[in-house]
Amino acid sequence: MRSILTIGISLLTLGMTTGVTRAEPLDVKPGLWETTTTIEKKRAQQPTNLDRLTPEQRAKVEAKLEHQVKRETHTRKACLSEAKIQSGEAFTGNAHRGACDHTFETQTSQDLVAAVECRGANKMVGTVKMHADDPEHMSGIVEMTYGPADRMQLYSRSVIESRWIRSDCGVASGSEVSGHAMQ
Questions:
Q1: What is the distance between the alpha carbons of residues 38 and 183, in angstroms, rounded to a whole number?
Q2: pLDDT tens per residue across span 5-33
Q3: Torsion of CA 22, 27, 32, 36, to 10 degrees
């Protein structure tokens, strides 16, 4: 299950692919961007029998479920190219070996909303929502459900804050530009 989450989080930061031409790219500058992503992961479906419990029992179960929620924050720098901004791949990424598709629902200079679906062993469904606050600042939310419906599914919600640093991406190094952020 951890490998599904690892792949899923990588896809969230790298994104998914599109065969659809974007109507209008987000109005953001190409170059080096710093992105802070706060991720919350938990079970996708909560127990359905909570209403049968006493208030005290329910409080204990809900407290235990809340304790199982995993939260992590990552800050990374990555180069965002003009070509990837124009295609939308900077925000929705590549096809992950053809297993993932997405459909743009909104495509304006300020907002991008895409539905994402990945098939196969790493099944995922969800949405990517990005907003260009201005050409040097973006924010977004990515919500994904991982795993087949007949097994325990996991849900993640990522809150993204990005800021443009400079037009020159410089030499890619592990400390300067990470492959696990917007590309």
A1: 18
A2: 433 444 444 444 444 444 788 999 999 99
A3: -90
CB neighbourhood size of 94 (10 A): 16
Distance CA 140, CA 132 (A): 9
What's the chain's length in residues?
183
φ and ψ of 98, to 5 deg: 75, 5
What are the Cα distances from residue 65, in Å, to 2, 8, 60?
A: 18, 22, 9
Interacting residues of 72 by C-beta distance below 8 A, sequence separation 6+ = 38, 39
- Residue pair 157/71 in contact (Cβ under 8 Å)? The answer is no
Which residue bears the tokens 């925000």? 91
**End-to-end Cα spacing for the chain:** 26
